Structure to design on (469 residues):
């Protein structure tokens, strides 16, 4: 009986020990392999928020402080960049924990509570939290003393006031602590709205108070001139990115890069561009600040109209047009291509347009040309692949794409797949071994330009899809 009890105890001990070992082994595996797995994928998947400083579209171009830092990081790693957007912090944290994203790139304040569920990088910047309040209508007529008397300057005066903050944000945590510190109740309303939306509600008079990071508040003050952002509600705090707990290798590499990059002139230029630039107001007030207007270009109406004929998302055709002309109708290339869709003279004549044709006529002809090219790839079943082949043919000509497909098929690759298959053989057409191959009918081709052309259009299209409903 005694021996049986001892055996049972030993078995329980061994079971628990093996479980503990398994968990440690799992943690060690995550720590060792996180960056390697990302490199195997060939891209880093990053979540950021969308607003006038982090990530937005202006005149067809993705921009933003976080976005430009992420581009620099991806280039450092030699990886592609996939951006996912969310202004819901709970949703962002869930996506990180589940492994859907590798990194949250935002202005995250480092707190003890957050450290329990994620690891923070070296800070990318620092700021303090400030109260956003509205100036009275007669502000300009008041003297300095009167101005100060009508605004909250002492944190004690927040007692009994209603202040709006983004749910689950460091602003909410700070106000709760401040309420305890002053020994009075602050009515804290946590909402799903992002900080910049709350600032706009203060400016419009829909709410009286909100809390924001100072650098973001100052940018917004440049175009909401009736708000005041001079009252701090916290000390200076570090802002960082976040990775999953135990992402040791990834965290180490990002930290090493950040510590070096923050000392470069490039970083200082990026920071100044978004937080110390008076042009911010012009961007946000522009018709082509997509977050507010939903517009990409002056030609969206025509793009939407004719995109229905081909059945493509209009934002994809907008991305192509940006690639071709940057939405400048009078641009001409060295080779003689003209207009928004950059028609070569022979193709233009075939589709009945000239440099004197209207912008609408040129867009319509461009879509007709895309439809004609797409039909040449009818044997490709996957629609996304067919689109990539069509874009490539629009850039370099149908013949070179047929050659690249023939080379792929001859060499055992799938001729119906663009990425890592036909694109590689298009790149190879600058090599005599390939452009002299009997299956090649159209000779030498500098494929790098077309390879980048398709990649850039598709990447920009993803940004348009992220930020434009």
């Amino acid at each position: 009986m005694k021996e049986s009890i001892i055996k049972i105890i030993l078995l329980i001990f061994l079971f628990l020990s093996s479980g503990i070992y398994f968990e440690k082994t799992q943690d060690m595996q995550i720590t060792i392999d996180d960056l390697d797995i990302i490199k195997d994928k060939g891209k880093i998947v990053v979540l950021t928020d969308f607003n006038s400083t982090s990530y937005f579209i202006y005149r067809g171009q993705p921009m933003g402080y976080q976005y430009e830092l992420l581009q620099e990081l991806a280039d450092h790693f030699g990886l592609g960049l996939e951006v996912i957007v969310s202004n819901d912090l709970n949703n962002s944290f869930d996506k990180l924990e589940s492994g859907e994203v590798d990194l949250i790139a935002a202005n995250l304040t480092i707190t003890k509570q957050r450290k329990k569920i994620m690891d923070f990088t070296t800070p990318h910047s620092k700021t303090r939290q400030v109260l956003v309040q509205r100036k009275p209508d007669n502000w300009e007529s008041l003297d300095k003393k009167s101005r100060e008397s009508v605004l909250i300057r002492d944190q004690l005066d927040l007692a009994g006031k209603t202040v709006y903050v983004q749910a689950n944000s460091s602003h909410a945590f700070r106000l709760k602590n401040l309420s305890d510190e002053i020994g009075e109740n602050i009515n804290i309303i946590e909402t799903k709205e992002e900080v910049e939306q709350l600032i706009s509600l203060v400016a419009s008079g829909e709410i009286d108070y909100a809390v924001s990071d100072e650098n973001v508040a100052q940018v917004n003050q440049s175009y909401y001139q009736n708000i005041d952002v001079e009252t701090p509600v916290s000390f200076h705090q570090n802002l960082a990115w976040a990775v999953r707990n135990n992402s040791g290798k990834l965290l180490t590499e990002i930290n090493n890069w950040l510590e070096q990059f923050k000392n470069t002139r490039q970083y200082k230029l990026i920071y100044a561009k978004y937080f110390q630039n008076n042009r911010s107001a012009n961007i946000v007030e522009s018709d082509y600040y997509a977050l507010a207007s939903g517009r990409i270009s002056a030609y969206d109406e025509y793009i939407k109209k004719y995109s229905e004929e081909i059945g493509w998302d209009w934002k994809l055709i907008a991305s192509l047009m940006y690639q071709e002309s940057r939405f400048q109708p009078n641009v001409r290339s060295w080779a003689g291509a003209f207009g928004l869709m950059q028609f070569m003279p022979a193709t233009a004549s075939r589709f009945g347009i000239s440099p004197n044709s209207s912008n609408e006529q040129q867009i319509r002809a461009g879509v007709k040309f895309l439809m004609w090219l797409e039909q040449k790839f009818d044997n490709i079943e996957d629609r996304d692949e067919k689109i990539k082949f069509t874009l490539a043919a629009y850039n370099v000509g149908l013949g070179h794409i047929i050659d690249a497909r023939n080379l792929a098929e001859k060499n055992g690759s799938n001729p119906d797949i663009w990425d890592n298959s036909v694109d590689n053989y298009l790149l190879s057409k600058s090599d005599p071994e390939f452009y002299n191959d009997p299956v090649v009918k159209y000779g030498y081709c500098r494929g790098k330009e077309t390879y980048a052309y398709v990649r850039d259009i598709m990447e920009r299209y993803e940004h348009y899809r992220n930020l434009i409903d």
In short: Residues 300-467 form a domain with the Lysozyme fold (CATH 1.10.530.10). The chain has 21 helices and 13 strands. Confidence is low (pLDDT under 50) at residues 6-32.
